Amino acid sequence: MLLQKGGFPQPLGAPSPMLICDLTQSWSAKAGGGVGTYMKAKRDYVLAHTPHSLLQIVPGAEDKIVVDGRHIWAEVGADPVRGSPNYRFILRTKIVREILARYRPAIVESLCPWVLPWTAIHHRRAFPETALVAGYSTDFPNAHVFRVAQKLFGTPIGRGFQWLSYGYAEITYREFDWVYTLSEDIRGVLARRKIHRTSVLPLGVDITRFHPSKRDPGYRAELGLPGDGPLLIYAGRLDNEKRAQILIEVIRHLSPSLGAALVLIGDGKRRDDMMADAAGLPIAFPGFVADRGQLARALASSDIYVSGMADETFGISIVEAQASGLPVVGVASGAMIDRIAEGLGLLGPVDDAAAMARNVEAVWQDNPRAIGAAAHLHAQQFSWDRTFELLFDDIYPRALSHAALRARTGRRAADRAHLAAMAAG
Question: Is the dihedral of CA 319, 321, 326, 329 positive or negative?
């Protein structure tokens, strides 16, 4: 049974203010992640800067709805994901559809690729006036499906699964009124799959919270880490996708005389075996840090941010590190190429711990404080206000306009009208 606290908001018939819904599987109270960061920042923006209400539907241990003024938090009971105990996966889509039918949001924004996008699509078939927006935040056919299938079955079969997944993406996201990606490259991937109603939505960072002034000289000693060389830090899931395990090899490749140490902030299915692998090395595993202020302190108190993630689609954690005044040593792949411009750090080959170690040494022997200062200035262009102004002032109006046209003329006519408008410039 759904539990509720507080009163339910009254239905809003006018286009503004309106009720907006975020819908995702990619949320965890214990593991953080880019989607979770986005949802929290969006909640704060909606309540502080708009007249709208926000309904956020996520997986949880049990069914629960909590209403707090204009914010509605709905958890749908779901089982843990096998191998990733901090995440849950909603299969009880009937409950999700009941929540959507009860609140009738003007816009449903889908933030994950599996199951729930089709729940939103089926909801719109019952309520044709609903606008559907999708965040294509990860190129999942490549980053998830191909990587796993290649490891299990080899490259040729992996490519087959990848091709099928792109077909699924094409069928799914052409149903949405608007889709945003996090980079022009991924926008191009969707265009090749005939998904044309797209925009690029740069994500943001809290540039007042993540700041060099949060540096605490006592942080390293607090973790019990030896040495007076570079303190490396990574913040994110400790799993295969993030390739965090390579960072342990980086420490092994660094000369002991450098006095380097590493902080791996986060949780995930690889944490236990990574801790066993790192035994005897100057590496700390403080776990997931839920308090954003404490995360800002950890970043600002370190010297170099390191990441082996090859499929980064935007890199919120990278920009938070840059805002905190850190150079970045990463890999020349995915969004890292966009985030780490010349003079802000160094990039090397994917899965090459020796090359990453050499880049750490090069940054440390250069002028890491000056590089970090440049990174801090670079990060100032990324703010959540800018992100949500683009979302509310451009992407949502486009989606609402297409949804209204589709409701009047049907999907095919609306799609033809959009293509004609694109051709006309």
Answer: negative
Tell the burial category of 70 from Cβ atoms under 10 Å away from its Cβ (0-12, 13-18, 19+): middle
Distances (CA, A) of 252 to 28, 280, 357: 32, 11, 9
Structure tokens of 264? Answer: 């791996």
pLDDT of residue 375: 96
Domain edges within the chain: 19-205+384-424, 212-379
85: left (phi over 0), alpha (psi -120 to 50) or beta: alpha
d(CA 327, CA 347): 11
In CATH, 212-379 is 3.40.50.2000: yes
Which pLDDT score, from 0 to 100, does residue 310 have? 83
Which residues have CB under 8 Å from 201's CB, separation 6+? 135, 180, 181, 182, 387, 390, 391, 395
pLDDT at 140 over 90: no
Place of tokens 């929540």: 99
Strand partners, 305: 233, 328
Rounded to two decimals, the pTM is 0.86
